[in-house]
Amino acid sequence: MLIPLAYEGKLFKLTVNQAGGDCTGVNVTASEVRQQDGRSVLPLRLSSQGICAAQDLHRQSHLAGPNGDYDVFPAEVSWQVRVDEVEWSIANSELSLGDLRLPGERVQTTLLVRFNGKTPFVIEASDLAATATLPDGQVQLTPTELEFPPVEVTGEPNENGLYAVPVTLAARQQIPNDPLRGAYYSGGINLNIRGLPNAEQMLKFNLRSPTLIQRYVAPIVVPVYTMPWALCTWPLTLFLLIMMLARMRGRDFEEEEWEEAAVASLSQPQGQGTSAFGHLGQAASESEAAQAARRMSASQADAVWGSSAWGQSDAGSSTSADAGSAWDNNGGWSGSGSAASNGSTAAKGDDDPWRSSW
After folding, report:
1. What is the DSSP letter of 39?
2. What is the pTM assigned to this prediction?
């Protein structure tokens, strides 16, 4: 409160004393005289040790100089002040506090408060409760499990007249939950301003007591498999699953066994059955035939392909080898017993390349 003054001569200090009025419990303190808007003013500060109810205050204050040599006219000044009723409200409809489970964990959020009083003021909780439905029944949280520490507000309101108050909710004990689905709690906190009676406000809140998967896996996987990343991650995941399935189905396939089975089928004489290509599928499906082919001795190979010494001079042995050979003298594949006649024809000349030694 500012009281305008007019000095004749030099400025001097003024003292203010209470002369009367109905302001019980209200103290008036005078500051130094100062210049404002081209005139001298005396700032008066009103303070109260207790709660001052909403009312109109009337008071007379006595002004005096430093001593009797200074005269002040008028010596008494009457003034009136209206004390408005202090009101406050919560602008948030409900606070989502996120995940809270282990003892000592804390979650922070911002509470928007509308308050017409002066700062600083303290917001504190008088009571809180939250409930959740679990397979075993309903579970209720009380101040034994949750703590809402008091918050002192010292800043200025924003352009909308709201105070942004950072509030904290802490877990004193482990919050119960369902091991498979977690637990979702919803409840309310009764908040009030310290020193302001009969002005409680209810703040609704909700929180989740997560499982291990919800706490550690879901924050990584869920953003990856949602739009727009899902356009790339879903086709890539499907491709990897198909590759893994194909790998698991073909892990018993051995290429070397197929090659040995093919060699074993080609090593069989044509007179014993079907063609070489017909034996390929049978040899591939019979592991015993493949093992027998790996243990094939050199004598069995000579019986099929003939003597390893090609073109011996002995006509009898050459005729015998040609008769059992799978290749005729004309360089073609023989499927019948005509090799003996071809062999006798080849024995007529020594320039036959099949009769010479390589």
Report:
1. E
2. 0.52
